[in-house]
Amino acid sequence: MIQNERTVCRGGYTPREIDKTTDESNLLRKSLVELGAFNTFETYVYGMCAGIGSLISTGTLDVEKIADGMAGLFYLSPII
Fold first, then answer.
1. What's the pTM?
2. Is 67 domain-assigned?
3. How many whole angstroms separate alpha carbon 50 and alpha carbon 67?
């Protein structure tokens, strides 16, 4: 979904009203917002996908391996 000024989130707010960032915001602020959004969503999606893939391919769920993968993704996220 492409977000523009007219996109409205829950509560009637636009995305720019929620995080208060603009195109003119400094790089650190924009980077921290992106990092927070990535770590609160993408790492869990990776974990769910890895778990489903493990169940399909091997029939078992290796929770420790999935947790290690999620931790690695979390630690590497500032570089990605």
1. 0.57
2. yes
3. 10
